[in-house]
Amino acid sequence: MRIASFNINGIKARLPRLKEWLEETRPTVACLQEIKTMDEGFPAEELEEIGYHSIWHGQKSFNGVAILADGVKPVEIQRGLGIDGPKEGEGEQSRYLEADVNGVRICNLYLPNGNPHPGPKFDYKLAWMAKLRDRMRTVWEEEVPAVVLGDFNVIPEDKDVWSPKAMASDALMQPESRDAYKRMLGDGWTDAIDTLNPRGGVWTYWDYQAGAWQRDHGFRIDHLLLSPELADRMEAAGVDKEYRGREKASDHSPVWVQVRD
Q1: 3-state DSSP percent of the chain in helix, strand and coil, to 5
Q2: Mapping DSSP to helix (H, G, I), strand (E, B) and coil, where does residue 156 land?
Q3: Could you read off the pLDDT of 188-236 as tens digits, one per residue?
Q4: 183: part of which helix (H) or strand (E)?
Q5: Which domains does the chain have, with CATH numbers?
Q6: Contact between 138 and 144 (Cβ < 8 Å)
Q7: Which GO terms describe its molecular function (predicted)?
């Protein structure tokens, strides 16, 4: 069973690239972030044509998450974490979707970026991470095989970025962001990519600016955290890096974990 995450950066603009990746790598489950479309604009029928059934949580122009499953319909468990956005009266943003697929709990997230730092957007990021950790505890208590995955917008350690100095002032690398991430791991979750690449140097994101892709100036912000029940079944994990180099690509590459059935 291959479980993957892909910040698609606009599903309408990247639909050909998405379908290409799905057909070439055939993940059992594919979690998307930044679909950037209202619910009614999600291309469910086109994805069903290649065998993927979907649930999604959309939002106009920004955010949005979806869970795709090969040949089966994801069984929705929860959408949203019950936390309003940083603007007064904004309501909740579309950043979290949870479902069961083939006996595995899939928790798909698009964590707030938090820039500029300091400020209300960074405060929102930390509050959102606290809410996420609360939800992760609840899932943990169910003792089900589970993965919490997506774009966390956190660079966990200096080894996860091409230049710590270049990113030192960014919200993705602040001590508070890193500490919140470490507390999740301290609860007993396994960072799949880091576990199999302890020396670091694995990137999942390359900015469109300043030739970041061509110079390999990237960092790791897309993560897969496994519960003990699923970590025991892990066989491999990696990044489909080549898809970042294709025409009209997302600025992220897909990440994945392979687990025994």
Answers
A1: 30, 30, 45
A2: coil
A3: 999 999 999 999 999 999 999 999 999 999 999 999 999 999 999 999 9
A4: helix 175-186
A5: 2-259 (3.60.10.10)
A6: no
A7: double-stranded DNA 3'-5' DNA exonuclease activity
